[in-house]
Amino acid sequence: MSHTPSAGTQATVLEKVIDFVDERVGLKLLAAKMLNEPVPGGSRWAYVFGSVLLFIFIMQAVTGVLLMFYYVPTADHAYASTQYILHDVDYGWFLLSYHFWGSTAMVVCVFAHMSQVFLWGAYKKPRELIWLVGLALFGIVMGFGFTGYLLPWDQRAYWATTVGVEIMDKTPVIGDFIARFLKGGATPGQMTLSRFFVIHVMVLPAALMGLAGLHLFLFRSAGPAGPFRGTPEELKAKTDYFFPRQIWKDIVGMAAVFACICALAFWEPVVLLEEATPDPGDYHPEPEWYFLFLFQLLRLKMFSGEFGQFLGAMALPGAFMALLAALPFIDRDPERNIFKRPIALIGWVVVMAAILIFTISAIINREFLD
Amino acid sequence: MQPKLKSKVRCADQEIGEVTKVIMDPLSHEISHLVVSVNGSGQRQVPMSVVQTVTDDLVQLRSSSAEVMALPPFKRDDYVTTHEVEIPHLEDHIHVTPGEVLVPFPELEKNVKRRTFFANLTHVIGLFIGLPLAFPVLKYLMKPMYAPFDNGWLKIGNVGKIKADDAGTQFKFKRKVKEAYLPEAEIEKNVWILKATPAVLEKVYQGKDMEFRDATGKTIWTNKKDVPYVAFSGKCPHLGCGFKWRQHKVLGQVFLCPCHLSIYDASGKVLDGPAPRPLDPLPIQVSASGEVQIIDMEFKAGTKSQTRIV
For the segment A215-248, what is each residue's pLDDT rounded down to a tens digit? Predict the structure, then answer.
């Protein structure tokens, strides 16, 4: 709500400056519009994930820019410059570790955000487009993880990329082109590093900012879905504006995530392996933890051979993403209560359990390799 | 019909004022109240439930003027305007404005006959800007993607280090690479060399000499089926990790890839795991003094057939 200083009291310098800008761009109206968004059924802790994701992204951008002050994206300097950040630059270890754990937090919050929207039935009409753009954003976050992983140019980085690109190579028809395009050749090298770097620091951030803006615009056009229970009267009675209660919950969520990332960066700082080389030595290649379930899936006998591999590495994840994209158009029942949507509830539990089981079995498998 | 601003408001007994504001329900997007400016004595908030009829310029109420006067005064501070709040589509179906708000059409715009033509032309010109760029940009990005194969022989060590027959021995070697503008660099690679017994050799070559061809199909080397030394590329044919020579509880001594647990016997044959084809033998020659030379080749992983990529 806009408050103009009442007549008689002297306006402070700050108020004068604000009024000056307001007169030209309608700042107060804009702020009011941003903050006065009714949240049907009232603010909730369950709604914090979107704002928290925006916060994590901003922090990733800030720490990412800071890392680029020292990082050099060349095959002969990437590893040394990363080690320099870790061991010589004041607080370099912290910024790099924050960036690393921030990416993990991003993936965790994306899962939480998507789960919340899914369980609340918030992807349904009229919010189909928000869901679709959200899926694209999910892909971009995964792309960030994949491209960023190569940049330190250590053995972990090299082998995750080698295997990851080999998987993309299995795309029908265009696989070989995509793999060579990403690697900038037949094997990972300088060209790969250059490509992943520019994708990580320019292409994906631009795409993410554009799509996140679209995501928010679409969200504001449709309005928040609100809880799946309650009569219109009950919802109306509990409704409040985005500011202050929801913003309060959001900022507490951000602070909690910030504290977690800092703690992880502090107690589990990034440690690099040997510099990247096509000879793995004693290192057992493994992807980042959020790709572990897919990694473990590809060990299964049913996904062996050329066709099995296509099935496990491309067809299955592809079909799953296609199903998610088609979800609001298949599931047209307006019922949003998750306890009245048994297939959706069971589906979610099964997917989560499968991811959990495969991740754990991948971790257990580690022991048998040494 | 919806009540309009400035409409006169008449009670059951007499006219009492005019509509100055309307209040919307944020949930149903319907008008819930009218704010009536009572002639000379402030504003009252009148629920729509007491509205009997609405005509073009008159709102007829069921209540008497005394009942309306008895309503509490309207409190402006309890409300925000629709401009200050973000409720999607709130204004879509309310028509409370006293009339349309208009601005004149510019003179020059009045007789433009070719609006669609101009719109399409804009797209065409945009296309003419973009199209010539597409091919150069694609070629620009594709520059390093396809490199010719290097068929030079590399010295990688002496067979003296092989301790047993039919056991994988890793030979590490350094290979010089010159990538684009970068100074020449060395990368570490490895191959596995086997001193095979005739039985294993038979499994590798299946009684035939193995020919290696270059891109044009010309034979560059032939591995003779009776030379006991076999070299396997260090790259796992499943998804390209590096495999090891390991003791397996059930299968004995095997090649095992730690990534997706593909297992191969000494001849490179797949025993277990997801690999789609056996290990890839490389061109090898061993001199009289035991010096090993190979041609370093890599093949696409994950396919049943061999496709050379390096």
Answer: 999 999 999 999 998 888 888 889 899 999 999 9
Locus of tokens 């900012």:
A209
How many domains are there within chain A?
A: 2
Indicate the residue of B147, B172, B274 with minimum beta-carbon distance to A308. B274
Same-domain status, A70 and A29: no
Is the ipTM higher than 0.90? The answer is no
- Cβ contact A197:A151 at 8 Å: yes
Tell if the CB–CB gap between A308 and B188 is shorter than 8 Å. Answer: no
Question: In whole angstroms, what is the distance from residue A109 CA to residue A112 CA?
Answer: 5
Q: How far is residue A118's CA from residue A126's CA, in Å, rounded to a whole number?
A: 14
* pTM (two decimals): 0.90
Same domain, A27 and A89: no
Q: With an 8 Å Cβ cutoff, are B182 and A181 in contact?
A: no
Is residue B66 situated within a structural domain?
A: yes
pLDDT at res. B41 = 83
Regarding whether A164 and A260 lie in a shared domain, the answer is yes
Domain residues for the domain of A133 are: 44-285
Partner-chain contact A278 B261, CB within 8 Å: no
Q: In this complex, do B188 and A278 lie within 8 Å of one another by their Cβ atoms?
A: yes
CATH of the domain at B21: 2.30.30.240
Whether residue A31 is found in the same domain as residue A137 = no
Condensed to tens digits (0 to 9), the pLDDT of residues B107-134 reads 888 877 788 898 999 999 999 999 999 9
Which of A6, A159, A178, A190 is the mutation pick for testing B, counting most B CBs within 10 A?
Answer: A190
Is residue B142 within 8 angstroms of chain A, CB to CB?
Answer: yes
Question: Does position A1 have pLDDT exceeding 50, yes or no?
Answer: no
- Asked if residue A13 and residue A49 are part of one domain, the reply reads no
**Contact A56/A85 with Cβ under 8 angstroms?**
no
Question: Is there a single domain that holds both residue A217 and residue A237?
Answer: yes
Give the domain range for residue B279: 153-295
Place of tokens 């590329």: B233
Cβ within 8 Å, pair A169-B301 = yes
Give me the number of domains chain B comprises. 2
User: Has residue B163 been placed in a domain?
Assistant: yes
Per-residue confidence band for A8, with pLDDT thresholds at 50, 70 and 90: low
Residues A106 and A21 reside in one and the same domain? no
A6 lies in the same domain as A97: no
Check if A222 contacts B (Cβ < 8 Å): yes
